[in-house]
C-alpha cells in the first residue's frame, strides 16, 4: 500500500477527476467528496463529485457554490465507499473502473486499482485532512467546513469510541482554517423541525425492550414516515436513540425501505458488543460501535431475526 | 494580573489548600475542583474540595477514590465561581477570605485576594489544563478525566460557539493521558433513564412558542418533577432543548425552585442574541450563548417577564 506521501504524489499528477460517494449519503462521504473536489479545483484541476441520490438538503450548505464541470474524465476516485454495491444505481457502472479508493472502513472490499484505506482514521475526512497536509497548500474555509463535517458526524461530535486525538487536533486546525463549526454542529446535531421532534417523541414512546432492557429497538415504518411527513434523510440521527436509554447495551433502529416494504435497513449501535460482527451476519458491515445491514421480512419477523442474533452478543 | 507562570509559582508554594466550587454544581466546577485537588495531592500537598450541595450522583465516577483529608487550612482557592453568592449556604462563610479565584467567567466579581480569570478559555478546566502544563508533572488518568469532563460539558461536547482550537488540542492530549472520554461522553450527554426520557418527551410536547417561533420556552414545575420522580441534577441537560427546535433563536428553560415555588431558575440559550445581557437584566449572568438568572413570580408571570425581555433581543 502507498503511504500518504505516495497518495499525494499520485493525485498531484492526475486531472479530470470524477469523485464517487456512496448512496444514502452521510456527512463523511458528502464532506469528503466535496472537500476533495474543491481542493483539486483550487489546485487548478478539473473535478466533479457524484452521488447516486444527490446531495441531501441537510448538507446543501456545503455545496452552495458547487457546479458540475465539463471535461473528459480521465480518473475515477471513490471516497468513503467500502463496497461497490454502495455506489447506488446511478453510479454502479463505475464499479470496475475505479482508479483509486480512499476510505477508512476496516471492512473495505478494496475494489479499486489502488486502495488507500486508513482504518485507524475516525473518518474518511480525516484521511483527506492528512492527505492535504502532504499535498501542501492551505485548504480554504469551505474545504475546512467539509472536512470538519465529516469528522464531526462520523465521531458523533467527538463522543464515540472511534474519536482519536488526531481527530481533535484536526478539528482544532480546521477551526483555524475557517470551518464554521458552530453552524455545522447545530445543523448536524441539534436543530430539529417541530415535525421531527413530534415523530421522535412517538418513536421513543414506542421503543421495545428485550433481554431485561439490554436491547432496545425502534421500528420506523413507511406508514409512520408518511403520516408525519418526515424527510428520510432526517432519520439518520435516530439510530443513536435506543442506545441512549440507561442499561441498553445494543441499540437497534429498523427503517422500512421505501421501495421495498419487505426489507428493513438496520442500524446497530453498541457498547461492549461488536456491532460490525452482528451486521456481517446479515451481509452488512461497519465499525465496532456502529454498523448497519439489511434484513428482509415483515417488521415482526425482521425484528425477531436481528434481536435473536444480537442477544448472542450480550 | 499574574500570568500562568506566576499562578504556577504561587500554587507551588502553597499547602493545606481548601478548594471551593459553586452550588448547583456542573461538570466544569466538579471537574475543576477534583482535578486541582488530585493534582495538588499528587505533588505531595494536602488539599480538599468542597461543594455546598455535595457531588451529584452523575459526577460520582470522578470522585470514587476521593476522601477528605485532615489538615489545618492555610489557603483557600475557588474554581469556576463567578460570584461569592454562588458558593451556597454551607460555604458562604468563606466569602471574605478566598486567597485565589481561578475562573473563566467574563462576569467574574473578582472577589478574591488574587483573581486569575481567563475569559477566552472555554472552561475553568481548560484554565487548569494550561496551569498544569506550567507546573510540570504529568496529570494522572483521573485528573485527565476530570479536566476532560469540564471542557466537554462547558462546550456542549465541542459544539458550542465557545469551543476553541485550544479546547480541542487539550482534549486530544487529555485522551492520551487516559481521559475515559467514551464513558464520560455517554454519561454526560447520552444516557438517559426511561423516566427521564418519558419526562423529556412530555416537556418537548409542552414547549410554548412566542414571536413566530423565535422564542421557545419549557417550564418545569415541582409538580411535574414529583409526578415523574425526576432527579433534579438530571434536568440540567434540558436547557438546550428549546433552542434545538428549527427557527428558534432564544431558548428558555424555567425550573421552579424546590424550596421556593414562587421562584424560577431560568436558563437561556441563544443564537444571535446575547444571553448574558438578558440574564443580567434579572441579576444573573453567564456567557454570550448560555446564561442563567432567577425570576420570581407565578409560572405565568415569571414566563411573561422573561419572554418580554427576551423579545427585545430578537
TrEMBL record, chains A, B:
Name all DDH domain ranges. 16-151
Q: Per its record, what are the GO molecular function terms?
A: nucleic acid binding
Domain DHHA1 per the UniProt entry, residue ranges: 224-310
Q: Which Pfam families match?
A: DHH, DHHA1
Q: Which PANTHER family match?
A: BIFUNCTIONAL OLIGORIBONUCLEASE AND PAP PHOSPHATASE NRNA
- This one is known as Bifunctional oligoribonuclease/PAP phosphatase NrnA
Which organism does this sequence originate in?
A: Candidatus Faeciplasma pullistercoris
Amino acid at each position: 500500500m502507498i503511504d500518504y506521501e505516495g497518495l499525494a504524489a499520485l493525485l498531484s499528477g492526475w486531472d479530470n477527476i470524477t469523485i464517487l460517494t456512496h448512496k444514502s449519503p452521510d456527512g463523511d462521504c458528502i464532506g469528503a467528496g466535496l472537500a476533495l473536489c474543491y481542493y483539486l479545483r483550487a489546485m487548478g484541476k478539473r473535478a466533479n463529485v457524484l452521488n447516486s441520490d444527490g446531495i441531501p438538503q441537510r448538507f446543501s450548505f456545503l455545496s452552495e457554490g458547487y457546479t458540475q464541470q465539463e471535461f473528459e474524465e480521465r480518473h475515477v476516485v471513490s471516497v468513503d465507499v467500502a463496497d461497490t454495491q454502495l455506489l447506488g444505481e446511478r453510479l454502479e457502472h463505475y464499479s470496475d473502473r475505479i482508479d483509486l479508493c480512499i476510505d477508512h472502513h476496516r471492512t473495505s472490499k478494496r475494489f479499486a486499482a489502488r486502495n488507500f484505506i486508513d482504518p485507524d482514521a475516525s473518518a474518511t475526512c480525516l484521511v483527506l485532512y492528512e492527505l492535504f497536509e502532504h499535498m501542501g497548500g492551505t485548504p480554504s474555509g469551505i474545504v475546512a467546513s467539509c472536512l470538519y463535517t465529516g469528522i464531526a458526524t462520523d465521531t458523533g461530535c467527538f463522543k464515540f469510541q472511534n474519536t482519536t486525538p488526531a481527530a481533535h487536533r484536526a478539528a482544532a486546525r480546521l477551526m483555524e482554517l475557517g470551518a464554521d463549526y458552530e453552524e455545522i454542529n447545530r445543523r448536524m446535531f441539534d436543530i430539529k423541525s417541530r415535525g421531527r421532534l413530534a415523530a421522535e417523541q412517538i418513536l421513543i414512546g414506542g421503543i421495545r425492550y428485550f433481554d431485561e432492557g439490554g436491547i432496545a429497538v425502534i421500528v420506523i415504518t413507511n406508514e409512520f414516515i408518511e403520516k408525519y411527513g418526515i424527510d428520510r434523510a432526517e432519520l439518520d440521527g435516530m439510530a443513536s436513540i435506543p442506545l441512549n436509554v440507561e442499561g441498553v447495551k445494543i441499540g437497534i433502529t429498523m427503517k422500512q425501505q421505501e421501495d421495498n416494504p419487505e426489507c428493513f435497513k438496520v442500524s446497530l449501535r453498541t457498547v461492549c458488543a461488536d456491532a460490525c460482527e452482528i451486521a456481517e451476519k446479515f451481509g452488512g458491515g461497519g465499525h465496532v460501535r456502529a454498523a448497519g445491514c439489511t434484513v428482509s421480512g415483515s417488521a415482526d419477523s425482521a425484528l425477531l431475526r436481528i434481536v435473536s442474533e444480537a442477544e448472542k452478543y450480550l
